[in-house]
Design a protein that fits this description.
Structural class: alpha/beta
Strand content: 15-25%
């Protein structure tokens, strides 16, 4: 099975921490949508397996109209083999979901009619001070109202929350988690606030306007998150993702399991098991190339070491771990023994464990898994 990711590169305003590709101008929305349609058609022979998941990411996909979403989904249906009842996820911001009273038909009913069956709502925080610090487009009232409305239509909702925000106490962080749980959501994705280069957040920290996030605070928040969600029957199935049984993200899980996927739209990435490609991160260039029936993509063939390192990185972030049998059969004895040797110190320090020939992080090692993975990487 395969998946299609669609990058919708538009936002109402720029969040201070974000380094994804997006534009706050919607002037190129119509030609870019047509370019996405063209790319889907040009690449229709690329995926040989049925499409199991479709994911609208961004940017802010909820800025697309129902008609625009329908056009994209119709194009996929007409040009690809899609399984019955695929997982179709739409990332949405609360301010796009909240509607005025008296609206004839709710946005949620319209999404369901399109076949969208999973909403990923970018709450980030329920506190106004945090939302203003991050320059989010919505406010705390909209955050609560949209979840109250959405949960009456959708049972497959995931909420994004950010921890490690400057001046966020452990008590405030716990309130954020419990507030999300009060709406009955079955999945939470949660990330530490990270200072990315060339973002407004980095600039504010350098100028002393905002305190830099502290690793110790983020670590405490992470532990609080894990404890509360496990007490509420969530499974910590990936470093930043928690879901109740049967509510794991099928689309994102396919990434972590190394399945093929196609990325459509500017800056989107694709992977077929041996080769990775990525589209130009420029809306104008993306549109121009596709108007000329050219693919705006750069390709890279992954070496054996690259594929092994990627498997280690994704595996250690998940409950699925790294199969030592797969390492030996796919990458050879030399790499297998090298990984075991590199893992030895982490096994002794109770950061890694081997269970049934599966190498996994322990609870103690989970927060450090990216650094541990880097220690295990095979270097050319």
């Amino acid at each position: 099975m395969s998946g299609i990711y669609l990058h919708i590169p538009f936002c109402k305003q720029a969040c201070h921490y974000c380094d994804f590709h997006f534009s706050t101008s919607l002037t190129k929305k119509k030609p870019l949508l047509q370019a996405i349609i063209s790319e889907l058609i040009l690449r229709k022979e690329e995926l040989q397996e049925p499409i199991e998941t479709i994911y609208f990411g961004g940017g802010t996909p909820s800025l697309l109209s129902i008609e625009e979403l329908q056009l994209i989904l119709n194009t996929i249906e007409e040009n690809y083999t899609v399984i019955n009842n695929p997982e179709i996820t739409l990332e949405a911001n609360p301010d796009d979901l909240v509607q005025e009273n008296g609206t004839e038909k709710s946005i949620y009913e319209q999404y369901l009619k399109l076949g969208i069956n999973r909403l990923s709502i970018g709450i980030q925080s329920f506190f106004e001070t945090d939302l203003k610090l991050m320059n989010r487009a919505h406010n705390s009232t909209e955050a609560e109202k949209c979840l109250e409305e959405a949960s009456s239509y959708f049972n497959n909702i995931t909420v994004d929350l950010i921890y490690g925000i400057p001046n966020m106490t452990n008590e405030k962080w716990e309130q954020n988690i419990r507030k999300a749980l009060s709406f009955g959501v079955n999945h939470i994705s949660s990330y530490a606030l990270t200072v990315e280069p060339k973002t407004v957040l980095e600039s504010f920290i350098k100028k002393g306007k905002i305190d830099a996030p502290k690793d110790a605070v983020a670590h405490d928040h992470f532990n609080i998150l894990v404890q509360i969600l496990e007490q509420n029957n969530f499974i910590h199935y990936e470093l930043s993702n928690f879901g109740k049984p049967t509510y794991f993200s099928k689309h994102n899980t396919s990434y972590w399991l190394g399945k093929s996927y196609m990325g459509i739209g500017p800056s989107a990435h694709s992977y077929n098991g041996k080769q990775r490609s990525w589209n130009v991160a420029n809306n104008t260039k993306y549109i121009k190339e596709l108007q000329e029936k050219k693919l705006p993509s750069t390709y890279e063939t992954l070496s054996v070491n690259d594929r092994c390192n990627e498997y280690i990185m994704t595996g250690l972030r998940t409950i699925f771990g790294v199969s030592l049998h797969k390492i030996k059969s796919n990458f050879g004895n030399k790499i297998y023994h090298s990984i075991l040797q590199s893992a030895e110190k982490h096994l002794k320090n109770d950061l890694l464990v081997i269970e049934n020939e599966i190498l996994k992080t322990t609870k103690k090692g989970k927060f450090l898994c990216d650094g541990i993975a880097a220690d295990l990487f095979i270097v050319d």
